[in-house]
């Protein structure tokens, strides 16, 4: 794995947690992310990062699925319960089922070992850009709350309140996609627009997974969606009026 050329520090100065029991791989990730201006903390076990999460909130967790004391999938589930940080899976498991399961549990992206450090950095920056775009400080939409069809989204707290008053915590990836829909109601949006990235591979199903998760929360019948509709051959559309406050 070759090192990327150093560039100017990241303007975000984001805090990145690396949970990786292979010290060599962890050092490579830490060194290359630090060269791009990220603050990095490394953990070799799930237990140590769980304790740290009680004291500090990172902007992004990079999680290896093959940890010695806890399966990475289980750790991801814990992280999404206690934090709204981004999640990037780095794993030697190349099977599709592991990648899909990671996305289902809220991961924003994944990298399969062996990987190029420049690829890891690019994916970290992409996740953080999407996370920033979905936050309350968005230039185009500074409002915090969005209401539609009896639902209410608190963009700052990542909370979606149902018409009957039940709160649902959404992961960063879900918040990003839902917010794009809410900012463009009754508009057909391509997978690239929803992902916030161009030239997505036709085999990349991450957007479809996130929309499926949203439909399970929003729709009476997710198999016959009325709110987030599929426009075959074009993309998806939110069929609802939206009010911001």
TrEMBL record:
<protein>
    <submittedName>
        <fullName>Transcriptional regulatory protein OmpR</fullName>
    </submittedName>
</protein>
<keyword id="KW-0238">DNA-binding</keyword>
<feature type="modified residue" description="4-aspartylphosphate">
    <location>
        <position position="64"/>
    </location>
</feature>
<keyword id="KW-0804">Transcription</keyword>
<keyword id="KW-0902">Two-component regulatory system</keyword>
<dbReference type="InterPro" id="IPR036388">
    <property type="entry name" value="WH-like_DNA-bd_sf"/>
</dbReference>
<keyword id="KW-0805">Transcription regulation</keyword>
<dbReference type="InterPro" id="IPR039420">
    <property type="entry name" value="WalR-like"/>
</dbReference>
<feature type="domain" description="OmpR/PhoB-type">
    <location>
        <begin position="143"/>
        <end position="240"/>
    </location>
</feature>
<dbReference type="InterPro" id="IPR011006">
    <property type="entry name" value="CheY-like_superfamily"/>
</dbReference>
<dbReference type="Pfam" id="PF00072">
    <property type="entry name" value="Response_reg"/>
</dbReference>
<keyword id="KW-0597">Phosphoprotein</keyword>
<dbReference type="InterPro" id="IPR001789">
    <property type="entry name" value="Sig_transdc_resp-reg_receiver"/>
</dbReference>
<dbReference type="InterPro" id="IPR001867">
    <property type="entry name" value="OmpR/PhoB-type_DNA-bd"/>
</dbReference>
<feature type="domain" description="Response regulatory">
    <location>
        <begin position="15"/>
        <end position="128"/>
    </location>
</feature>
<feature type="DNA-binding region" description="OmpR/PhoB-type">
    <location>
        <begin position="143"/>
        <end position="240"/>
    </location>
</feature>
<dbReference type="InterPro" id="IPR016032">
    <property type="entry name" value="Sig_transdc_resp-reg_C-effctor"/>
</dbReference>
<dbReference type="Pfam" id="PF00486">
    <property type="entry name" value="Trans_reg_C"/>
</dbReference>
